[in-house]
Design brief:
binds magnesium ion; 272 residues; 10 helices; magnesium; alpha/beta
Length: 272
Amino acid sequence: MERMRILPKGWKAYLIDLDGTLYHGPRMIPGADGLITALRAKRIPFLFVTNNSSRTPEEVAAHLEAMGISARTEEVCTSAVAAARYIAQAQPGCKVAAIGEAGLTIALKEAGLQLTLEEPDVVVQGIDRQFTYDTLTRAARWIRGGARYVLTNPDLLLPSQEGLMPGAGTLSAAIQAASGVKPTVIGKPAAPLMDFAIARVGLEASEVAVIGDNLHTDIAAGVNAGCGTILTLTGVTTADNLPDYVKSSGVEADLVCRDLDEVRARICGSGE
Ligand SMILES: [Mg+2]
C-alpha cells in the first residue's frame, strides 16, 4: 500500500472499533487477541469504542472475553454511555425520555439522569428492537413540544447472522420526518463519542489514534475529533474497494494496515 507512512510519533493511546475490527459477530478476527495482549504488555493505553448502544459495557467486555479477547468493563466506551454523559453535562438534572434498550437506559440511570415518559427535557434514542408506531408518535410529540433530540449513533443498517438489520439511524429517519428536527449525534462519525473516550484516557486528541475498519464512521470520527487514524482491512474496507471508500467518505487514514498483525507490529513493535 503506497499510502502507508511511518507511524507518526506521539500516539500514546488507541481507540479501537469492535465489529469488523476485532470480530465479526461471534467470531474473533485473527490477531485481535494478540493485538490486545501486546498493548497490555507494552502498557499502551487503549479503549474499546463502539457505536452499539444496546449492550452495557459489562456485556461488551463479556462478549470480547468469550471469544478470547482480554477486556475489562472500564475499557469499554459505548455510544449509550457517551450520550448519557453528554446529556448529564449539557443539562444536569434534566428529565430524559429514553427510546432504546438496556444498554441505554442503564447508562442514563448511572449518569444520574431522571427517566420519564412525560414532558421530557431530552429525548435520547438508540436502537430499539421493540420500536412501534406508538413510540414514534410519542417521540415526535415530545420533540415538537420542545424536547432536545439526541441520537446515540446514526448507523442505518447493522450486519447480523441472518442478514442486515435496521439500526438506530433508520429509526431516527422516521423520528426526524415526524418531528422536523435533526438530532445531536453522539456516535461515529460525529465527534462526541471520541471526545468522551479521549477524555477518559486523559490525553490530547492529537496524542490518540482511532483504529477501525470503516472510513465513513471510524476514520471520519477520528478526523472530526482531531485524532490520528489507522484503517484495518479486516471488515468493511478491502484493498479493492479502498479507493472508492476514500472518494465517497472524503477522508483518508494516516495509516492503512492489511490485518491486525500489521497493526500490532506498527504500534507495539514486531515480535510480542
Ligand atoms: Mg467496524
